[in-house]
TrEMBL record:
Record lineage: Bacteria, Pseudomonadati, Pseudomonadota, Gammaproteobacteria, Moraxellales
Occurrences of domain PAC (ranges): 469-521
EC number, as in UniProt: 3.1.4.52
The keyword Membrane is annotated on this UniProt entry: yes
Protein name: cyclic-guanylate-specific phosphodiesterase
All copies of domain EAL, residue ranges: 695-948
Species of the source: Acinetobacter wanghuae
Keywords: c-di-GMP, Membrane, Transmembrane, Transmembrane helix
CDD domains: EAL (cd01948), GGDEF (cd01949), PAS (cd00130)
Length: 957
């Protein structure tokens, strides 16, 4: 170590000497540069011109010194050189400088005095000594790190002096001695300086060694401290780990303890569960210690009891059913002997006297003597299976019901998939059970049509929503079977109300449908003619009007009646009449192939529904075709008969959109056709419809009108044609509607005729007319005669006479001043009763006038039979006066009336020509707008007063 330190110090010393000298030599060189320049300048100032050698020396020295300085500075940068190279260079540099200085001293001291006389020896000595001393002084300061450097500068410098002492004759001894002494002193100083430098460097080296040692010590100490700290940390970590482990251990112990508690608790629970399960399942465990002859049982209170096994078996023997004792014993023995793996027996035991209950006993030997193989301990359970046996029996019964039921029964799961079906359902669907199971409810039926699909989805929705469905469906199974079914599906729920299954019952309705169809035929068809009856006709018409109104735009309702069927029927007797109706129906069927519907309503009434379309013949053409077909005779009972038909037609929607209204219109048209004498086709007149369109709801409003006295009577004058005196009036009713003004009778009388309202109106008119006659009588018009219009219904209802009597009595007028206008058609119905009524009317001296003569029934026989006084020629004839043929008819009518002794009245006279013509025919009385329109009371009275004054009529024209 010490040796190592010495080496280090030596090395450091050497390196410090060279490095310091390199650094200091730069200052040394600069000093030399300056002193040389100074000497050169001093000499130059005193002695011009200068000497060549002196100049050469100066320039050469300056260049040399500068080069050395540059090499020092540029080449030897700190830390970038080898010590050895630097040492050699310093030696060389010192030697070169020493040489340069020596040459300079020689030049100044020896050469210059020889060439320049003015330059004295003293001056030369002074200058050269200056150069030497300054050089040595700077050498001492900067180059004494190593003695070699100083010596290499110093020693060459002395050479010129020694040279001059030796070779020149120098008598200046003092100078010589001084010089030598100075050289010695300088050498001594150099040596001292070297030693001081050396010691300083050594101390410095030692010091730096110590510093580095100290640093090393400090580093080691730090390292040790760190290691110590790490150790401390490690021990802390270990301590913490230990604490953690300790805590974990404690936690584990706690958890374990808790688990054990929990397990204990679970075990207790399971034990309780087991006991509960045993209790619920009716299981009673037993444990038989064969060795100690003790058996532990669970009694019916679910308590454990131990008893002697011998006693127990004796007791068991007593309560086991005698038939099961042997079976029980043999099973037990087999197992105890090891012949059977376990003991199992199902037997009956007596609960109470006479009540046997099935039990299932099962057990196993769990311990045997290893040597003798004798059983030592056996355990087992006994279970009461009485309820199960009963349920099984019930299930068997239910299954056999399912098997034998004469209804299709199926069971679906909660997703409506088949899980079971009975044989009858297989028969109905045409599928085997295996083909159905697992399929969805309607997967076995056809679902091609959207209607079927929607029915199915509705059923499924309903079943899912309310849990049941009950209804009739037409189903086609994929097996090809198609039928009407009654389907009943019901959800089965568990105790919580959740749907677990669905039960479906399917009945085949095919047979019932057939029966219904048969019944429906009887209900809807007329058995005599095989045509639809009135009920079905109305139903069908309703269907067309309501459900098919979009497809049928226009339709004709044709009502047909056989003309004069009643007498023919009576003549043909019952069978013949039926046969005729059958043939009529057949012919109607044939001729109405294009019609929508042909029906036999009753008796001789038929109806046809005919769709109006441009691709079919018009209604008129169609009806003409029917009429033509009926021109051919019918052969009934070997005789040919020709019959004619009356037809009344109403149009949908022109005449109405409702069934009743259309029927009424068609009936009304038929009545008109009949009134015209039959063999006629009549279309319903739209007058009434127009009224309806005006928004007047006749019947209701008419009743209100009667109540509110909105009906007023107008009077149209009748004039004696011969003397032009007033004969009387015709009372004509008007409806003074609060909103619509005066409504003419043609608008409401035909409708009133369809209800009882006409009788009320008639009574009102009779009463009002009677009152008016009374008033006119009172005013002096005594012979006045006023006619009122009477319809068939009034004649039929039997109220007319009372009304007349009441009017006459209450007003006290004479029957002669009243006249009743009756239409021809009224007389046809119920001829006998009408005849009686008319006779009674006649007894009251009331005249009877036949109104609208010529428009109705063409038979004239009633003219003779009935007590008719006046014949009133219809205005349709009067209006055509001018036409020869028509005139002929009018004249025939007048002639006939006259011939039969009747008064002849012509109504609707509008022109003087008509009046004149009738006058020529000797017609008695004239009525018409020519004289006056029907007038309200006041104006009628005025008219009367005026004609009395004039005693003649005045034309209105
Ligand atoms: P009708 O009994 O034949 O009455 C005659 C009708 O002819 C009246 O029509 C009358 O105004 C009209 N008339 C009279 N002269 C002329 C004429 O020169 N030219 C034209 N174009 N018409 C003339 P009105 O009053 O509209 O009565 C129509 C029908 O209503 C009556 O026919 C009658 O059948 C019925 N009617 C009127 N009032 C009553 C009534 O109180 N009871 C009943 N049951 N029916 C009545
Ligand atoms: Mg009349
Ligand atoms: Mg008339």
């Amino acid at each position: 170590m010490v040796h190592h330190q010495k080496d280090y110090i030596q090395q450091h010393l050497n390196s410090a000497q060279i490095t310091n000298t390199l650094r200091h030599s730069r200052y040394f060189l600069i000093s030399i540069l300056i002193i040389c320049l100074y000497i050169f300048c001093v000499y130059l100032l005193h002695y011009q011109p200068t000497e060549l050698y002196f100049n050469v020396w100066f320039v050469g020295t300056e260049i040399m010194v500068s080069l050395c300085w540059l090499i020092n500075t540029l080449y030897f940068k700190p830390g970038q050189y080898h010590l050895r190279t630097a040492h050699r260079w310093l030696n060389t540099q010192c030697l070169l400088i020493g040489a340069c200085i020596a040459i300079g001293i020689y030049t100044i001291y020896i050469y210059l005095p020889s060439v320049n006389a003015q330059f004295t020896a003293i001056q030369a000595l002074t200058l050269s000594a200056l150069l030497l001393i300054v050089t040595q002084a700077f050498g001492l300061t900067f180059l004494t790190q190593k003695p070699s450097y100083f010596c290499l500068v110093f020693l060459p410098c002395l050479i010129p002096f020694f040279f001059s002492q030796i070779f020149e004759n120098n008598d200046n001894l003092f100078l010589g001695l001084s010089l030598n002494f100075a050289v010695l002193v300088i050498l001594f100083c150099a040596s001292s300086s070297y030693r001081i430098h050396k010691r300083t460097s050594r101390l410095y080296a030692e010091n730096s060694l110590l510093v580095s040692d100290a640093k090393q010590q400090v580093a080691w100490t730090d390292e040790l401290c760190q290691q110590l700290q790490q150790e401390v940390n490690k021990s802390k970590d270990i301590e913490m780990q230990l604490q953690l482990n300790n805590q974990l251990l404690e936690q584990k112990v706690r958890e374990r303890t808790y688990d054990i508690h929990q397990m204990n608790h679970d075990l207790q629970n399971q034990n309780q569960n087991l006991e509960l399960a045993h209790e619920i399942a009716g299981i009673r465990p037993w444990d038989w210690n064969i060795k100690d002859r003790v058996i532990t049982l669970t009694n019916h209170m679910h308590e454990k009891v131990s008893r002697d096994s011998k006693d127990h078996h004796a007791q068991l023997h007593d309560i086991i059913h005698p038939d099961d004792v042997d079976y029980f014993k043999s099973n037990m023995k087999q197992h105890l002997r090891g012949q059977a793996e376990r003991y199992e027996a199902t037997y009956r035991i007596q609960q109470t006297k006479g009540v046997w209950s099935w039990v299932h006993d099962i057990g196993r030997v769990i311990s045997r003597d290893p040597k003798t193989n004798k059983p030592l301990r056996m355990v087992g359970i006994r279970r009461d299976i009485q309820n199960e046996r009963t349920s099984q029996e019930r299930l068997k019964l239910a299954a056999s019901v399912l098997e034998q039921a004469a209804e299709g029964i199926f069971i679906l799961n909660e997703d409506l998939l088949y899980i079971d079906t009975n044989p009858f359902f297989e028969q109905l669907s045409g599928f085997e059970r295996e083909q159905i199971i697992g399929k969805h409810l309607f997967d076995i039926t056809a679902n091609y049509k959207s209607q079927q699909r929607s029915t199915h989805s509705n059923i499924i929705k309903q079943v899912m929503k309310i849990g049941s469905f009950d209804g009739e469906i037409n189903e086609k199974f994929l097996s090809g079977k198609e039928m009407a079914l009654w389907l009943h599906i019901n959800a089965i729920t568990d105790d919580e109300g959740r749907v677990t299954h669905y039960i479906g019952i399917v009945s085949d309705l095919t047979e019932r449908k057939h029966q219904e169809q048969r019944l429906s035929y009887l209900e809807n068809y007329d058995t005599l003619t095989d045509l639809p009856n009135r009920f079905y006709y109305n139903y069908q018409l309703h269907q067309y009007l309501v459900t098919q109104k979009d497809s049928i735009k226009q339709m004709a309702v044709i009502r047909i009646n056989i003309d004069r069927f009643r007498p023919l029927n009576e003549y043909l007797s019952h069978n013949g009449g039926d046969e005729l109706l059958r043939q009529v129906a057949q012919r109607l069927r044939i001729t109405n192939a294009e019609a929508l519907f042909v029906a036999h309503l009753n008796g001789d009434d038929f109806a046809i529904l005919y769709e109006i379309s441009h691709i079919r013949p018009s209604v008129q053409e169609h009806c003409d075709r029917i009429s033509k077909a009926f021109s051919q005779p019918f052969n009934v009972l070997g005789q040919d008969y020709v019959i004619t038909l009356s037809m009344g037609i109403a149009f949908y929607p022109d005449h109405g959109r409702q069934l009743d209204y259309l029927n009424n219109c068609a009936e009304q048209a038929l009545a008109e056709a009949k009134a015209l004498g039959g063999n006629t086709i009549r279309f319903y007149s739209s007058e009434n419809t127009a009224l309806l369109e005006q928004g007047i709801f006749i019947e209701r409003d008419l009743r209100k009108a009667i109540k509110n006295n909105e009906l007023v009577v107008y009077y149209q004058p009748k004039i004696h044609i011969t003397n032009q005196h007033i004969y009387g009036f015709e009372a004509l009713v008007r409806w003074q509607h609060p909103e619509k003004g005066i409504i003419p009778p043609g608008m409401f009388i035909p409708l009133a005729e369809q209800t009882s309202l006409i009788s009320e109106i008639g009574r009102l008119v009779i009463r009002e007319t009677a009152k008016q006659i009374r008033q006119w009588n009172d005013e002096g018009f005594r012979d006045i005669c006023v006619s009122v219009n009477i319809v068939a219904q009034q004649l039929r209802r039997g109220q007319l006479l009372d009304d007349l009597d009441q009017a006459i009595e209450s007003t006290g007028i004479s029957g002669k001043s009243l006249e009743l206008e009756i239409t021809e058609s009224s007389l046809v119905e119920n001829s006998d009763s009408v005849m009686n009524l008319l006779n009674e009317i006649k007894e009251r001296h009331i005249n009877i006038s036949l109104d609208d003569f010529g428009t109705g029934y063409s038979s004239l026989s009633y003219l003779a039979d009935f007590p008719i006084d006046i014949l009133k020629i219809d205005r349709s004839f009067v209006s055509k006066i001018g036409d020869k043929k028509q005139e002929a008819i009018v004249s025939a009518m007048v002639a006939m009336g006259k011939a039969m002794g009747m008064t002849v009245v012509a109504e609707g006279i509008e022109t003087v020509e008509q009046l004149e013509y009738l006058r020529e025919l000797k017609c008695d009385i004239a009525q018409g707008f020519l004289f006056s329109k029907p007038l309200p009371i006041k104006e009628a009275s005025e008219y009367l007063a005026q004609t009395k004054l004039n005693l003649s009529y005045s034309y209105q024209v």
